[in-house]
Write a structure and sequence with these properties.
The protein is mainly α. Helices cover 83% and strands 0% of the residues. It contains nine helices and no strands. The chain is elongated. 21% of the residues are buried.
Length: 204
């Protein structure tokens, strides 16, 4: 490789890193804006202002607000998957009841740390991109269930994972909309419901 080629590569890497940092800053600003005013009231101009960027810089990376929300959903799905990986390792050998408790705790902590999570889940979706992220989470959870009960077929495990995630999604919405003093009781009720369901499907 020529010296000119080496120089060209070295010039591109910092530009890529700066671009990644800028995208991260824009998504962080968007998350704060969505959490504060909701998806419908948030604007690209407000997101740019919160990020300390020009509106042109925002459009350079995202064609519209729906694309911003979709990118946040993908980011959150990736973060959630990482937490689940650690959870799987930490709860190996525990009972279904104990694992469900840890699972619910992780989800609640995630919502507390990501207040825009529920808002963007109801935003217009990039169906192909979002479906890919959802399917990946369901497949991971289905694999956990098959490890727990090898007799489950892939289709059965995926169905149980889908139902479980739908239950958690409904808990997320109720938990977020509830008064702070009611949230612990809502989490307990869903803990009971999910434990009963999974013990029936996977055993205790």
């Amino acid at each position: 490789m020529s010296m000119d080629s080496d120089t060209s590569v070295n010039r591109r890497i910092p530009l890529q890193e700066r671009g990644e940092r800028r995208v991260a800053e824009l998504l962080e600003a968007a998350a704060s804006q969505f959490a504060e005013v909701g998806y419908d009231a948030a604007t690209m101009k407000a997101i740019a202002k919160r990020a300390g960027a020009s509106i042109g810089a925002v459009y350079q990376y995202f064609p519209d607000k729906a694309a911003v929300a979709s990118a946040l959903r993908t980011q959150y799905a990736n973060e959630m998957e990482e937490r689940w990986i650690h959870l799987e390792e930490a709860t190996a050998g525990l009972s279904v009841k104990e694992r469900v408790q840890r699972f619910v705790d992780v989800m609640i902590r995630f919502m507390e740390e990501r207040p825009a999570y529920i808002t963007i889940m109801d935003a217009p979706a990039d169906s192909r991109r979002d479906k890919k992220a959802r399917d990946r989470l369901r497949e991971r959870l289905a694999n956990v269930f098959r490890t727990r009960r090898p007799a489950l077929s892939s289709e059965q495990a995926y169905r149980v994972a889908s139902v479980s995630l739908q239950m958690i999604k409904s808990m997320n919405i109720l938990y977020t909309n509830a008064k702070p003093q009611e949230r612990l009781e809502i989490a307990r009720e869903y803990n009971l419901a999910l434990t009963a369901y999974l013990e029936k499907r996977l055993g205790s």
